[in-house]
Amino acid sequence: MAFVKNSQQLLIARFLLGMIQSGFFTGTIIYFSLWYCKKEQIMRFAILFGAVFAAGVLDDILAYGISHMEDIGGLKNWRWLFLFEGLPIIPLGVMTYLFLGSIPDTVQWLNNCEKLLLTNLLREDAGGKLQ
């Protein structure tokens, strides 16, 4: 969005970003259910929402500082804001994709005993039979 030239391009970029982000909350709920028992999920959601709140506070502080960067490097301050907020997300997203496993059975950073223990705990919590 830092490289758009007019308001029409900005609206299109924001719309596409909104479409991409729309599944984040639902996906987070599903992801937590694959890793945590029901009573543990509540605390994880609280941590997530606390982190969202803290990120909003830090974002506001960053935006205030960036608002004083008018025409530095030939970019308007709103473009700098999109750059500073967006650039760290790219490597973080790649690292998350590479290292964050989808289910306990497929991750490599748990040994077989830990995978079995976690899988059995989640099955028991869901009311399923143990292996």
UniProtKB/TrEMBL annotation:
TM helices/strands, residue ranges: 12-34, 46-66, 78-100
Membrane topology: Multi-pass membrane protein
Example of a GO cellular component annotation carried by this entry: membrane
InterPro entries attached to this UniProt entry: MFS, MFS_dom, MFS_trans_sf
Keywords in alphabetical order: Membrane, Transmembrane, Transmembrane helix, Transport
Pfam families found in the cross-reference section: MFS_1 (PF07690)
GO molecular function: transmembrane transporter activity
Localization in the cell: Membrane
Residue intervals of the Major facilitator superfamily (MFS) profile domain: 1-131
Name this protein carries in UniProt: Major facilitator superfamily (MFS) profile domain-containing protein
Lineage of the organism: Eukaryota, Metazoa, Spiralia, Gnathifera, Rotifera
